[in-house]
Design goal:
By secondary structure, the protein is an alpha/beta fold. The protein has helices at residues 21-35, 66-78, 87-96, 230-235, 254-263, 281-293, 311-329, 342-355, 369-377, 408-416, 425-429, 452-458, 461-474, 483-498, 509-520, 532-546, 548-557, 562-580; strands at 8-15, 38-45, 53-57, 60-63, 104-114, 117-121, 130-133, 139-145, 150-154, 166-173, 175-178, 186-187, 204-207, 245-248, 270-277, 300-305, 334-340, 391-399, 419-423, 442-443.
């Protein structure tokens, strides 16, 4: 039963030439039947329309123009997802059976545009995070909702957009194509290839913003994600599903730690994703070449939002990378994702927020800057067995100024993560690399993410190093040292030297165990401090030749029996004593 037609609907018909009376009557009849109201229809000439009409009825827009019909046809073709051999028949069918639909569209008008921001009015039902389509094919995302207008960040060149341009809703949230084909490729924040390797076939599409798994959907972090770095795996172990912050000043080796961790996942069935935010393109190109040279790009995706890209692209980059990682995680696979770095991400978000005229807070950051990173990092998890048991381990990187870990952004991210690895400038410039500060660094997962072999071998190494650092400071005020103190200092210096590790040379588990057992039993004392690293390399080669079964047993079982420990001690003592007897000045 039709509703009573009490109110009057005001509608405007746009076209390059005036309609006939017959056409006007058809439009009026259509609106009366659609809205059950009396219609007051007026015509406005628009020379920009090549052919056809555009009808505005309240908030709804009906596009019968040539451009609108072509757009419908294009969208119809884009919906086709055939196999290559079936594309021609499907396209033929689509062409023959295509009939333009009379669909209500919600359109808006650009009020202002500039600095990667567009202000739009006339989209009352637009949702936060929804993708809008501007003239020229430029896309944007709704970022600010006000009573009479919305603020939108742009993902393309805003020069094609002008005041008064038409804006259309898509009804879609921002997302990224995903699939196994992305492995080994370099892409931008929209999932488009930028390595010159051609198009990437997608297996799905995931929204860049997605709720984090709940408590019931997670399980404890209890499986190691080994970095191959002795200083980290022995004292600050990282588990699958953990969020471990890498923090330090500029040029202290933060990226190097992350890259060594990626290299160490070779052959371990771990998908690695490196998200470069605001980095120099030359640095990222060099990093990609290093990964290719060492066979690591086969299981790695590099998502690059360069310093030259817009703040909008830098803002969505880590969320896009996280969405890519979730695709693999929900398949039951293990993922390692590196965000390099979140300091630049926060700066990009601050720029967008200020341009959107949001109220600035501390250090001019908006009030929701904590939520900016918490909703990102909380998506890393070790899923329950019911959800496949996959995991995503996050290594966010944050740059500090003059070692100030109490600054706004570092403090926020420290409170979100499960620990931090602090790289100290003084240690780095003294030659200690990785320059891990043992006192400030921590892993809140701790021994739960270590194998029994590593836990046994590492023993009290943190305590020994802490005692050495304290004793080192004390000895600055005294020249006369007893033999016990000298021996303790020499032991500590040897430990620090042993923890030095060249980049791109990660240790396997059995190598770390051999070095730790030897060092903590004071077997490196006969070795001069400046020859510790050479001695360590020779010792590893010696033990691997003499007892390959021992090495493979540690790697396969993750356990260290008393007999194995005694065997390592015996082999190391004999080798080091023989090779370096009488060479140490102690």
């Amino acid at each position: 039963m039709a509703k009573e037609t009490t109110s009057v609907l005001t509608a405007v018909l746009h076209g390059s030439k005036a309609p006939t009376q017959q056409q006007l009557q058809r439009f009026t009849d259509f609106l009366t039947a659609k809205y059950h109201q009396s219609v007051q229809l007026t015509f406005e000439q628009n020379d920009a329309l090549a052919d056809g009409f555009i009808l505005n009825a309240g908030d709804d827009v009906y596009d019968w123009s040539l451009e609108g019909r072509l757009r419908q046809f294009r969208e119809r073709l884009e919906q086709l997802k055939p196999q290559s051999e079936k594309i021609i028949p499907l396209m033929k069918e689509a062409v023959e059976n295509f009939t333009p639909e009379v669909l209500a569209q919600e359109t808006g008008e650009v009020l202002t545009v500039g600095d990667e921001i567009a202000t739009v009015r006339g989209l009352p039902h637009a949702a936060y995070g929804e993708i809008l389509l501007f003239s020229g094919g430029v896309k944007g995302m709704v970022q600010d909702l006000k009573r009479d207008e919305i603020g939108c960040i742009l993902f393309g060149d805003g020069d094609e957009i002008s005041e008064g341009s038409i804006v259309r809703r898509t009804g879609k949230t921002a997302g990224i194509p995903v699939g196994d084909a992305f492995l080994g490729r370099v892409i931008n924040a929209l999932g488009e290839p930028i390595d010159g390797g051609g198009e990437i076939p997608a297996e799905g599409y995931r929204p860049i913003e997605n709720p984090a798994p709940g408590i019931i959907d997670r399980q404890p972090v209890n499986t190691p994600m080994e970095t191959g770095l002795l200083a980290i795996d022995s004292m600050f172990p990282i588990g699958r599903g953990q969020r471990e912050l890498i923090i330090g000043d500029r040029q202290t080796g933060k990226t190097a730690v992350a890259l060594d961790t990626i290299l160490n996942q070779k052959g371990k069935n771990v998908v690695c994703i490196y998200v470069a935010i605001g980095q120099k393109s030359s640095s990222v190109a060099q990093m990609v070449e290093n990964l290719k040279a060492r066979g690591a790009m086969d299981y790695t995706i590099v998502l690059h939002a360069p310093a030259s890209s817009s703040a909008s692209m830098q803002y969505i980059a880590p969320y896009a990378g996280c969405a890519m990682g979730e695709y693999f995680m929900y398949q039951g696979r293990d993922v390692l994702i590196v965000y390099d770095d979140l300091s630049k991400h926060a700066i990009a978000y601050r720029a967008l927020s200020l341009l959107l005229e949001r109220s600035p807070g501390r250090e001019a950051y908006p009030g929701d800057v904590f939520y900016l990173h918490s909703r990102l990092l909380e998506r890393s998890a070790h899923l329950s067995d019911e959800l496949g048991g996959g995991s995503m381990t996050a290594l966010p990187i944050v740059e500090t100024q003059a070692g100030d870990v109490s600054a706004y952004i570092p403090t926020n991210i420290i409170s979100i993560t499960d620990g931090q690895i602090f790289l100290e400038s003084d240690l780095f410039f003294s030659g200690q690399r990785p320059a891990v500060n043992v006192g400030i660094s921590v892993s809140r997962v701790g021994g739960d993410a270590q194998t029994k072999a590593m836990k046994t071998a590492a023993g009290a190494i943190r305590l020994d190093l802490a005692q050495y650092r304290e004793m080192e400071v004390f000895t600055q005020f005294s020249s006369d040292l007893d033999d016990t103190t000298k021996r303790q200092l020499q032991y500590g210096q040897g430990l620090m030297r042993l923890l030095r590790q060249a980049q791109y040379h990660p240790y396997s588990q059995h190598q770390q165990v051999i070095l730790l057992v030897s060092a903590l039993n004071h077997l490196f004392l006969p070795v001069p401090v400046d020859q510790v690293n050479t001695a360590a390399a020779q010792l590893l080669e010696h033990v691997e030749q003499k007892s390959p079964d021992l090495c493979s047993r540690i790697d396969s079982t993750g356990k260290l029996s008393d007999e194995d420990r005694d065997q390592i001690t015996s082999l190391a003592k004999a080798f080091l004593t023989e090779a370096f007897a009488g060479k140490c000045g102690a």
